[in-house]
């Protein structure tokens, strides 16, 4: 727990350091805006002073139209600065979100599918989409506000002090009350915002996971129970949100109270100047008093911006808590080895072990075997024997805890990922089918394939046998996960994809695990044809699969217990 807190602190520090460099132009614009606000207040105070005390016009020393022209110019400049600030803050937020999403996606891609053994897909989706999106305010609002809340009021206070010292003292004291009130309410606001953010994250992750498993929920008769649990999560989010709003209201009210008190006190102190003006006396201090009153809202504006952005700071902590849960990526050596596409591939497992969980022991325990180029090797054994773990290591989803895997004599850890990926085709227990047409799903392996290559793959996978039963043939739209196709039909799409890629390596992980015997036999016929002139490793516990020729390696609890050549 303590280690997690340290990680969260380091991650937030790192993001703050990166963000502060990006918001420097925004801070500079904010400082310029403060000087413009002072100049505007001066112009308005002079104009109002002349209207209240006409005799001031004679002591002005320059044409009054200059005041009006200056006001208009300053007003336009102020508007341009506000527009530039909005534009720049939007760009800073967009750039920060793009960077974080890119970093998270790259980290997840480097870890590979094994991350789903530790974290839910819903949680990862929430981190990349919603939590990153919520950090827009931290980079575009909070970071500049965390500097300007001190610098801008100080600039204004110095300017007020030069013309009205007592007013500066009053405004300064009232301003000091705001951080004290913010500290009191801010602690509650930070806790409430963090709890609300976590409640939202839990609801989003739960909802996405339940949508993905909706068929299982309905068939298990748990739809009503799950709906109640989602409703409870939604109610928790509603409760947390209302609490955040209550605390935010109190925080904002404290700033309003301080500002009103400052205006009242300054007005009371300077009432004598206005009384003198009514009696017709020529009095310059009335302009100073007006300036002090007019500048007060600008003095409190940066403090208000800080209070409004305070929740954005809490969101960074919430995102950090999710970010540090991602498994750490160890230092990787540079992968420079490129495998030849024209050379058949051999594979060697040299004393390889893998541990998923130390409490459960080794899933694969110091196994060694060789796979000759263009040969077929079958990994046979009951569930839990270690077959899928070996396939996952071959695919690079996970790395051996100890030992080496060699491709053509080269250590897998030194081989360029893209080089190995180009040579590899994989068909798992459940084919990965995307929402789209059958044609699009097959072409996923080779988007630039010709029509002739596509038709050969379709025929080789025997997809043409059921195309006539589909409304639009290859252009028939199928749902995510192959919805609209039978298990065998979906598996044939995966086989066609592997045919089209025409890779030297073919890894098969229980490709007929969920099929009926007749469909299984047809699928194996297609796989035998696909295996020609390729290096194939297939994990199976199917009785039919065990009759296939090749090197049969029998596994039991991560150990090789038998190895025979079937011809």
From TrEMBL:
PROSITE patterns given in the database record: ABC_TM1F (PS50929), ABC_TRANSPORTER_1 (PS00211), ABC_TRANSPORTER_2 (PS50893)
InterPro entries: AAA+_ATPase, ABC1_TM_dom, ABC1_TM_sf, ABC_transporter-like_ATP-bd, ABC_transporter-like_CS, ABC_transptr_CydD, P-loop_NTPase, Type_1_exporter
Location(s), subcellular: Cell membrane
Topology of this chain in the membrane: Multi-pass membrane protein
GO CC annotation, single: plasma membrane
Residues that span the membrane, as ranges: 23-53, 65-83, 142-163, 169-193, 247-269, 281-301
Main location: membrane
Recorded GO MF terms: ABC-type transporter activity; ATP binding; ATP hydrolysis activity; ATPase-coupled lipid transmembrane transporter activity
Residue span, ABC transporter domain: 347-566
Pfam entry (one): ABC_tran
Gene Ontology biological-process annotations: cysteine transport
Limits of the ABC transmembrane type-1 domain: 26-315
Gene3D superfamilies: ABC transporter type 1, transmembrane domain, P-loop containing nucleotide triphosphate hydrolases
Superkingdom, natural source: Bacteria
Key words of the record: ATP-binding, Membrane, Nucleotide-binding, Transmembrane, Transmembrane helix
Protein name, entry field: ABC transporter ATP-binding protein
Provenance organism: Commensalibacter papalotli
